[in-house]
Amino acid sequence: MRDPDGLLARAGVRGNPDRDQHFLVDDRVLDRLPTYLTEIDADTSHILEIGAGTGALTDRLLEAGDRVTAVERDPALAEFLREEFADEIADGRLILLEGDALDVDLPDFSASVSNLPYGVSSEITFRLLPEKRPLVLMFQMEFAERMVAEPGTSEYGRLSVSTQHYADVELVEPVPKEAFSPPPAVESAVVRAIPRNPDYEVDDEAFFLRFVKALFTQRRKTIRNAIRNTPHISGLDDPDAVVDAADEELLSKRAGAVTPVEFAALASLAADVGFDEHE
Ligand SMILES: C[S@@+](CC[C@H](N)C(=O)[O-])C[C@H]1O[C@@H](n2cnc3c(N)ncnc32)[C@H](O)[C@@H]1O
C-alpha cells in the first residue's frame, strides 16, 4: 500500500482547510475503511470516492474493488493523481473525474467509500443516498451523531429522519483529529449506510421530506403549532385542516419525539386534507 506521508511529500501539498483538505495519514484508519464494505459483502465492482486528495484512500479502494471512480475538485491534486496512478488509469481500473462532486455526472457505482469534504458533506450525502448503494463516509462527529440519532434524543432531527428514510445507518468508528493532516478542528466519525426501504409508505417523497423539514424548524413548539406556523415551508394550503384531522396526542408532541413512522402517517394525512383541489 502507498504510504500516506509519502503521497503527501510527492504531491508537495500541505492541505488547505479552506478547501476542505484534511488528508488521512493514519494507516490503520485507511486500511479499515474498505473493510466496512467487505464485511457486509457489499458489491465492490465499482467504488466511488468523493474527494480523492493525494490518493491514500484511493489506493486502498483499488485493492478492495475491481474499479474505482475518484472525484477531485482541486486541479493540482487531480494532476498529481493522474501521474501517481498513471498505470491504474491506463488499465481502466481508475477513472479520475476532475470537478465539483456536486456537479459532475456520477457513474453507476456499486458502493462509495469517501472521506468527504466537510463543507459540502450534507449536499454530497443527499446526492448519494437516493442512489441506494452502500456508503461508508467520513463526517464531522456532530453531523454523524445527528444522522444516526433516535427519536427522543437531543441529536434527533431533520437530518436523522431524512437520512434514515433511505438507509440503515450506523456510526462504525470515531476518528481522532490526529488521524488527519492538517488536523480538523473537531473529531470525526465514519458512518455506514446500508440502503433499504423505510418501514412506512409515503406517496410523495418530496412533500414528506419538506414537511419534516418544516416541523423541525419549530422543534420547541408542539406539532399543532409547528404545522400552523410553517405553510411557507411545507407548502400546505390549509394547515388548519391538517390540525383538525390529526390525532390529538400526536399534535401535542414536539418534533423531537415523533418517530419517522408517525411523521409519514401525518404527511399522508396532510397531503390528503391540506391542499386545495387544483383541477
Ligand atoms: C477531507 S479531504 C480527503 C482526501 C483524501 N480522500 C484522504 O482521505 O486523505 C477532501 C478532498 O475533497 C476535495 N474537495 C473539496 N471540495 C470538493 C468538491 N466540492 N468536489 C470534489 N472534491 C472536493 C479536496 O480538495 C480534498 O482533496
Number of helices: 15
Please compute the radius of gyration using only Cα atoms.
Answer: 21 Å
Portion in helices:
40-55%
Query: Could you say how many structural domains there are in total?
Result: 2
What is the β-strand count? 9
Strand proportion: 15-25%
Q: What top-tier CATH class of the largest domain fits best?
A: Alpha Beta
Uncertain stretches? none
Mean of all residue-level pLDDT scores: 97
Name given to the CATH architecture of the largest domain:
3-Layer(aba) Sandwich
Q: Pairing-aware structural class of the strands and helices? A: alpha/beta
CATH superfamily grouping of the largest domain: Vaccinia Virus protein VP39
Question: Cofactors and ligands present?
Answer: S-adenosylmethionine
Family: Belongs to the class I-like SAM-binding methyltransferase superfamily. rRNA adenine N(6)-methyltransferase family. RsmA subfamily.
GO molecular function, one term: methyltransferase activity
Domain Ribosomal RNA adenine methylase transferase N-terminal: 29-197
Binding site for S-adenosyl-L-methionine: 22, 24, 51, 72, 100, 115
